[in-house]
Each structure stands twice: as structure tokens, then as C-alpha cells.
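Here is one chain, start to finish.
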Amino acid sequence: MKSYWVVPTERGAALEPRDGTQPEPKEGQLLVAVRATCFNRGELILSHGARGAGAKPAGIECAGEIAAVGAGVTGFATGERVMGRCVGGFAPYALMDAREALRIPARLSWEQAAAIPLSFLVAHDMLVTHGHLAPDEWLLVTGVSSGVGVASLQAAKALGAKVIGTSGSADKIAKLRALGLDMGVVTRGTGFYEPTMKATADKGVNLVVNNVGGTVFAECIRSLAYEGRLATVGYLDRTLKAEIDLEALHAKRLTLFGVSNKLRPPAERAKTVRAFARDFLPYFADGRIVPVVDRVFAFTEVAAAHAYFESNAMVGKVVLSI
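Its structure:
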């Protein structure tokens, strides 16, 4: 079985083709015949999952048909359409923890379903579980055209919130207005504080999703309203350090939190999936949210797909069809 592995390099990470055997599901696992999978920044940035861990199977989310069910799994049968976080999605077959598997709504294609699990689970974590975003509140998303950024925008609009987004591309901002973006700020870094304060009548935003990293952290703090919340989910700028304005933290009663699944035990991860299914899955089932797929590449075009992904030309997700 041909698969791709993430291999650390001096400049980041490469995708290396390898031949191996088809995996077998262990207790509590599903073997999924992969129909589509997605590129995700987290596993391809050296300072994320690729650092110090050696080579690992590529692909951390997928959509496909259940090919086999491991011991102890109940509630799923072979042939069912599922999506979820997985191990080794850049391959014809991948393993998925049955507790994290989600049935695919009938209206969704394989490619659309593959674009949901990681980005929207993270968005749910930030906006609902920890961000407590309410209708008519303001959300600021730095790097709004990324997979997580677009998911956060779409989820926030479904929740009835208002959204400000930053991007270095005016064209991307224009595309996202069609998804409900209330205000776009064209910038690759800082420079969003004044437009944000103007849009919010000098009150600031209630929640920030920071995809960019340390270079914009201070301005995110400044842009928060009283009792505002700041979610740190990415560091595209590769800047992992930032100063915290303790006076602002104290005076405005701010909440700062990070979003990552690296240290979460499996049972806790499964709990987040159940909450996502309860709160967000109906949005996909009835069409209130349609996943944004920028481009679809064939499995034979992994190198071209990777190059396109690294170009940062996309809005939403880059998908591999297998």
C-alpha cells in the first residue's frame, strides 16, 4: 500500500512516498477506506508536530467508508460513510478511533466531509467550549483565509456573531465577504487595532482567534473588550514568544487560552467530538455551513498539492481525492 509520510527537514517538512502493508484495526478502532483527506498546517510546520518526532504517517483527518471494525466497537458497521481525525490519511486506508468517528451528512461530498473534522473541531473548541461566543458578539480572526480561519468565520456566523478578519490578500478578503465576513483588514501582521476599535465603537472584540502567532499577540490583547477571550491556535509567523500586557490582562479581566490536542488523553478528545456533533453537525446536515474546499488534487498529485498548499494561495482547504 502506497502512503505518504511527513519527514522533518532543515526548512520544515517534506512528504515522502513509502510502500507498506494495509493497517489492521486494533481494539476500539475503525479501518477506513479513505476517499478524501486534507492538508493541515500543524503537521507540516517544523515547530508543530514535525519537530523532533522523526518521520510519521501523513494525514490527520479523512473521510471514507468503514472497511473493517476493531474489537469492542459498537454502533458502526462496514460500508458506512464516516469522517474524523485519523492516523495516516494520505493513504488508501487509515485508522480512526471509533470514539472520534462522525457519520457524514448525506448532502456532503467526500471532499467536503474531509474538510470538516480538524478545522471545525478546533473552531468548536475555541468558539464554544472555551470562547463562549454569543450572538451579536464580535470575533476577530487573524489569518482568516486559513482552514481554521474560514471554519471559525463560518461557525461564528452560524452562531449569530459578527466577524472581523485579517489577511494579506484583498482578493481573499473579497471572497470571504460572501461567507459573511463583516469587515476585512488587509495586513500580513499588525495594523488591525484601529479598524477593529472603529468597527466595535471603541469597545473591542469579545473573542480573538490568533492563527498568526507571536508577532500579533500584543495587538490581539489591545483589541479585546472587557472580559474578552483570546485563543492562540497557530503561529504561521514562526514566532513562539510574546510579551503579555499584565495591566490589560488585569484591568479588562481577560481570558487567554491555547488550543491543541497534543496532550489531550483519548477520552477527553472523544468528549470534544461528542460536543461538536451536538452543536455543529446539524449546521452541515441542513446546509447552514458548507465546507470551503479551495482545490481538489488527485492522490497522484501529492507533490503539486503540497506545493500549492505551501504557496498560501488558498482560501479554505486543499483536499486530496483518493
